[in-house]
Structure formats: structure tokens, C-alpha cells
């Protein structure tokens, strides 16, 4: 592994001239996460709001707000501005979290009152609809405004095969949605492996994969072809002793999980829509990566990947794992796609590591995470610019979006190539979304959907994990006003 890192350092410090002008910078894979520097703060205000690249090309133009939000109705604009202004008030968010986690929610009348309030405020802003019909209407509205949708049935963790079967049927219906909507208006079907495989089994598989990595003589008879899942800097504190082998019933349940994922992929591909598999916390992520790569080997046979995995850049090992997986895929001739996110489990990950006396797997500073995200994005843009592959850049960070847009232009990655998709959550970073659209890029909104009570965990996470980001979303709020 030391040899791999040494090679990566040398290989990705090389700068190659393209077209006599653009210099390539790429990922430094050293464990110190010394990635390409994040761009300086854009410092955007409503009076000076055009972001330009070093070559003077516009990436964002926020001066003409009427044109920027032309596709949004006045009513929707006012509702969004009001919701974001409330969400920027930390005391209000803290109170809302306390209420939704309190025993008062067990009281029927109070619960109905709270859910109704949520339905017409945060739910309407952050959730695409209660079912596939309402979500389809949202996708059409986005398509009419020049955007696409990543559809995501909002069910998360399941605990048994019966729940997995029900969730799989809902995900199949989600995949079918694209067949009744305008061509390419759905960019991806999002799949959570926790909906098709019981969480306890994902923990078991993750433990066994970790133990195998650390002990080369330990073999897993059920393991199928995969890409590298770990690096030397990956967290292994979840598995402190040798796990018991999977039982016959557990192996059978794993086979069922393969079949469920396969059935969703098959239905999605009928509509010519790729699948993106979401990331979870580090306790179960190895099993999710394993199933993602299994599906990649099964389906990614063409020049364009149809199964994408997710890399969380706030993890210290993200850059190494991305590099190792991509280079292993290249060696086997496998086309791969990745969605790059910052991450959504910062508090719980750090608390768990601390409770086990281990170092947090999360980068020590926010800037380290920014550097990792930007470095991984630059590396993948360089990779897909001259060979098969795909990249989804899911971000609400204006600096990262601007840097990636500049790099994409330098590398000649056009909208028609279908190699790059920018994405952000529905109801967030709308100014950046419309700015990227106007700059000529493929842009999607991530569209979770489901009944109010079912998507409560999603809404809680949006409030708890992102209240710092929401309270700093002054650009959206100012431009909307």
C-alpha cells in the first residue's frame, strides 16, 4: 500500500498541457489529504455577484435575479424565501428538533397538528411529493425549468426480509416513473441498500470484509467480484475481533439482497435511467460499497456507467479509496461512475469513534473536507475527460461548484457528453442550481418523496446536520427576496 501511495503522489503531481492552455491538476493521494487547494471564498453579494474563472469566463451570473428565477412562480419563491429564513434561525430549528423527538409526538392530536404544520412548510420545500404521482409532477416542473430529477423513495433502514420486499417494490415503482415522464427528465434513480438488505446483515458483511482486509488468510466463500473497498487509512475500529462466518440463512438473505438490487436496476435500465447508490455511515458502508461494485461488474459494460457509487469526502480515507477503486476498475476494463458528496453523519461518526477510543474518521477541519472534495472532483474530472466514466457532483458549496465548472470547461467536458451532472437537494442552493443551468451544465435536483411521517428521518437530518449551512444560505435568501 505504501508503494501505491508513493506511485500516486508521483503520478498525480504531473501537470499535462491540454490544447496549449489548460494545465491539469490532479489528486494527491497522500494520507495527509494534501489535495488541490480549495478556491478562495467567492464573497458573493447581491451588488457584486458574478463569479469568474481565472480566464475571465463567467460561471455564475447572479446580477439579473429576474432571469435567474424566471422559471419559479412568485408564490413558490415567497414560500421558499420564508422557509429558508425560518430555517436560518437556529433557536427555531432547535425547538423544532426537540418537539419532533419528544414524547408529545405520541399524542395523536398533537402529532397530527405537528405533521400538518410540517407538511405545509419544510415538507413542501424539501420533499418532492407523497407518492410517484406528485413526484412526477415535480419532475415535470423541474424539466420545464431546464433541470432534471434524481428520484429517491424516502424509506431508509429495514430490519427484515418482509420489509425489504415491500421497499423493493416501491423502488421498482420509482424506477418505472421515468417511463411516463419526458425522456431524460429523470437523471438517476437513487437506491439505498439499507432498503433492500436488512441492516443487521450489512453490519455482519461489513465486519467480515474489514476482517478479511486486515487478515489476508481469512477467506469469504460468498464474496463475489468487487473493487477495493478499503485503504490503509480506513476506519477498522468497528470490528475488534474475528466475526463469526455468515450462517446458511444469512448467506441466503444476502442472495435475496442481490436479487432485490438486480430487480431495481433492471427496471430502471428499461427506462434508460442509471442508478446511483447512496452512502451511509461507516459501520455499514463497506457492505454497501461491496454491493455497489458487484452491481457495477454486472451492469457497467458500456462506455457510460449505469451504476454509480457514492464517496463521502468528509472521510479521511475518501481520496485513497476513490483512487484505488478507479485504478482497479481501469485495470479490469470496468467503466465506473461516482457521486461525490461531503457527508451527512458527522456528529454520529465522531461520537462513535470517541466512545471506542478511536480517532474520528471525519476530517479534522472543514477546510480539510473542502480540499478533499475539490481534489476528488478534480481527479475524477481528469479521469472522465479522456476515458469512459461518469461523475455526479452533489454539492451546495458555491466555491466547489465554480471550481468544478471551470475544470470541466478546461477539460472539454460538455453537456452532451453525459459524463458530468451537478446535483443538489431539492429546496436548497437554488441560486447555484439555476446559475449552473444557465452556464450550460446538466443539473439535477435530488428528490426524496414519501408520506410526511415516513420522511421525518430525512427532514430531521436536513435540520440537524445542515442548520449551519442553512443559516449561511444568505445568497439564496437575498436573491429570492
From TrEMBL:
TM helices/strands, residue ranges: none
Q: Which GO terms describe its molecular function?
A: FAD binding; proline dehydrogenase activity
Listed A to Z, the keywords are:
FAD, Flavoprotein, Oxidoreductase, Proline metabolism
Q: Name one GO biological process term.
A: L-proline catabolic process to L-glutamate
Q: Which cofactor does it need?
A: FAD
Enzyme Commission identifier(s)? 1.5.5.2
List the InterPro entries: FAD-linked_oxidoreductase-like, Proline_DH_dom, Proline_oxidase
Instruction: Look up the domain of life of the source.
Output: Eukaryota
What catalytic reaction does the record list? Answer: L-proline + a quinone = (S)-1-pyrroline-5-carboxylate + a quinol + H(+)
Q: Does the keyword Flavoprotein apply?
A: yes
Q: Name one GO cellular component term.
A: mitochondrion
Give the first-level EC class, as a single word. Answer: oxidoreductase
Q: What does this protein do?
A: Converts proline to delta-1-pyrroline-5-carboxylate.
Q: Which family does it belong to?
A: Belongs to the proline oxidase family.
Which named protein is this?
A: Proline dehydrogenase
Protein species of origin: Mikania micrantha
Amino acid at each position: 500500500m505504501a508503494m501505491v501511495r508513493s506511485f500516486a503522489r508521483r503520478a498525480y503531481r504531473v501537470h499535462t498541457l491540454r490544447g496549449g492552455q489548460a494545465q491539469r491538476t490532479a489528486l494527491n493521494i497522500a494520507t495527509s489529504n494534501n489535495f488541490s487547494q480549495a478556491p478562495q471564498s467567492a464573497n458573493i453579494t447581491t451588488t457584486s455577484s458574478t463569479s469568474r474563472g481565472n480566464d475571465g469566463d463567467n460561471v455564475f451570473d447572479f446580477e439579473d435575479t429576474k432571469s435567474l428565477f424566471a422559471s419559479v412562480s412568485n408564490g413558490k419563491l415567497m414560500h421558499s424565501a420564508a422557509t429558508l429564513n425560518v430555517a436560518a434561525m437556529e433557536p427555531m430549528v432547535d425547538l423544532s428538533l426537540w418537539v419532533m423527538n419528544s414524547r408529545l409526538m405520541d399524542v395523536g392530536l398533537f402529532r397530527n397538528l405537528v405533521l400538518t404544520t410540517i407538511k405545509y412548510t419544510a415538507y413542501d420545500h424539501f420533499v418532492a411529493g407523497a407518492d410517484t404521482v406528485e413526484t412526477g409532477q415535480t419532475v415535470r416542473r423541474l424539466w420545464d425549468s431546464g433541470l432534471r430529477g434524481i428520484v429517491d423513495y424516502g424509506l431508509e433502514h429495514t430490519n427484515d426480509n418482509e420489509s425489504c420486499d415491500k421497499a423493493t417494490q416501491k423502488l421498482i415503482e420509482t424506477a418505472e416513473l421515468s417511463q411516463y415522464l419526458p425522456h431524460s427528465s429523470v437523471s438517476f434513480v437513487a437506491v439505498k441498500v439499507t432498503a433492500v438488505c436488512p441492516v443487521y446483515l450489512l453490519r455482519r458483511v461489513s465486519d467480515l470484509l474489514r476482517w478479511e482486509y486486515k487478515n489476508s488468510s481469512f477467506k469469504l466463500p460468498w464474496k463475489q467480484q468487487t473493487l477495493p473497498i478499503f485503504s490503509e487509512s480506513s476506519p477498522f475500529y468497528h470490528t475488534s475481533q474475528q466475526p463469526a462466518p455468515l450462517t446458511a440463512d444469512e448467506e441466503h438473505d444476502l442472495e435475496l439482497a442481490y436479487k432485490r438490487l438486480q430487480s431495481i436496476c433492471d427496471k430502471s435500465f428499461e427506462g434508460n435511467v442509471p442508478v446511483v447508490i447512496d452512502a451511509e455511515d461507516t459501520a455499514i458502508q463497506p457492505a454497501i460499497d461491496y454491493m455497489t461494485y458487484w452491481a457495477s461488474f454486472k451492469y457497467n459494460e458500456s462506455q457510460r456507467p449505469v451504476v454509480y457509487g457514492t464517496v463521502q469526502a468528509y472521510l479521511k480515507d475518501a481520496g485513497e479509496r476513490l483512487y484505488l477503486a478507479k485504478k482497479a476498475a481501469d485495470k479490469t476494463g470496468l467503466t465506473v461512475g461516482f457521486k461525490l458528496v461531503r457527508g451527512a453523519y458527522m456528529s454520529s461518526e465522531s461520537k462513535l469513534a470517541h466512545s471506542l477510543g478511536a480517532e474520528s474518521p471525519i476530517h479534522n477541519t472543514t477546510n480539510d473536507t473542502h480540499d478533499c472534495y475539490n481534489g476528488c472532483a478534480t481527479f475524477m474530472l481528469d479521469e472522465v475527460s479522456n476515458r469512459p466514466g461518469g461523475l455526479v457532483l452533489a454539492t451546495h458549496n458555491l466555491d466547489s461548484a465554480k471550481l468544478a465548472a471551470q475544470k470541466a470547461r478546461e477539460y472539454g467536458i460538455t453537456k452532451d457528453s453525459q459524463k458530468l451532472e451537478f446535483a443538489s437537494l431539492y429546496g436548497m442552493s437554488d441560486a447555484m442550481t439555476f446559475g449552473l443551468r444557465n452556464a450550460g451544465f446538466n443539473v439535477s435536483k435530488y428528490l426524496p418523496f414519501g408520506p410526511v411521517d415516513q420522511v421525518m428521518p430525512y427532514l430531521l437530518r436536513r435540520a440537524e446536520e445542515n442548520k449551519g449551512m442553512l443559516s449561511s444560505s444568505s445568497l439564496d435568501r437575498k436573491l429570492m427576496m
